[in-house]
Amino acid sequence: MRLDLLLPLILFLISVIVLFIYSKYEMKVKSLFEENEIRTQDAVLMVLAMGTMITIMAFIPQQAMMILILFANSLLLLLFTYVIAPKWYLAVSTPALFIALYFFHWNMNLSNIFAIIFILTISIFLGSLFTWKSTVAFITLLIIMDIIQVLGTKFMMVSVEKMLVLQLPTMIIIPTFPMKGQVILGLGDILLTNLLSIQTYRRYGKIFGYASCISIAVVFLLAETVLLNLELGFFPATVMIAGGWIIVLVVKYLYKRS
User: Fold this and answer.
1) What is the distance between the alpha carbons of residues 115 and 181, in angstroms, rounded to a whole number?
2) Are 192 and 139 in contact (CB under 8 A)?
3) d(C-alpha 3, C-alpha 105), whole Å
């Protein structure tokens, strides 16, 4: 039987780290955005924008894609560094280091490290901006968009292939264990895991927040095992992630009724 334990474990660890950091800096991040919130209509526009960007990246030249993603990631690094350590020279130094490493000393390990840093940053920022209602709208539309772009138009795979050539930090690429091979997980899938765990934490408390991390990782492990053994190739990971999250909501509902 083909089995991979490493990717679900990394997904779990990242979501746990995000929850821990979020609990420490929640009020600071909220003050940065002056208590603004992402409404349901904003969530709809975000998913539409994401779907549009995936389509555009499938057609634009690789160099244009590289400039766009490097700029966005540098801006995120600057903002996150300033939240952690509000010194302008520190905030500027992190994106400068990232750009220098990308052009002069880049490899897959660095790509994975920066990809994780970026998704931690995005998750903590968005975790403070989303509401429960806008989160439900976001996840529903994101799953639909993911299914269309992966199984329908296949633009997702085209974009991923370009990013792989450029080694852009928009996904994590790790070896499988105990089987030999390699797997790819997009940052959007990790973002969804983190966002759902943060919102569960905010609504139901720490226990159910971390339970969400565990449940998503376990369901992801089971689903990935099925996909590997059936050799189905690309599959919308958002479906697996949502399935793990729904289990926690069902458990919470049954716990409340008992």
Assistant:
1) 20
2) yes
3) 33
Amino acid at 13: L
Q: Are 73 and 114 contacting, i.e. CB atoms less than 8 angstroms apart?
A: yes
- State the Cα–Cα distance between residues 73 and 121, nearest whole angstrom: 10
SS3 86: coil
Quote the CA–CA distance of 19 and 154 in Å, as a whole number: 33
Strand 171-175 and strand 182-186: the pairing is antiparallel
Read off the DSSP letter of residue 58: T
Of the candidates 68, 43, 6, the residue with the CA atom closest to the CA atom of residue 143: 43
Looking at residue 144, its amino acid is I
168: left (phi > 0), else alpha (psi -120 to 50), else beta? beta
Cβ–Cβ under 8 Å, residues 237 and 220:
yes
Looking at residue 153, what DSSP letter applies?
S
Whether the Cβ atoms of residue 247 and residue 222 lie closer than 8 Å to each other: no
d(CA 30, CA 125): 8
pTM flag (> 0.85) = yes
Q: What string of pLDDT tens digits covers the 258 residues of the chain?
A: 889 999 999 999 999 999 999 988 888 777 777 668 899 999 999 999 999 999 999 999 999 999 999 999 999 899 888 877 888 888 999 999 999 999 999 999 999 999 999 999 899 888 889 999 999 999 999 999 999 999 999 999 899 999 999 999 999 999 999 999 899 999 989 999 999 999 999 999 999 999 999 999 999 999 999 999 987 777 889 999 999 999 999 999 888 776
Task: Extract the tokens encoding 28.
Answer: 């600071």
Nearest alpha-carbon partner for 30 in 150, 216, 209, 198: 198
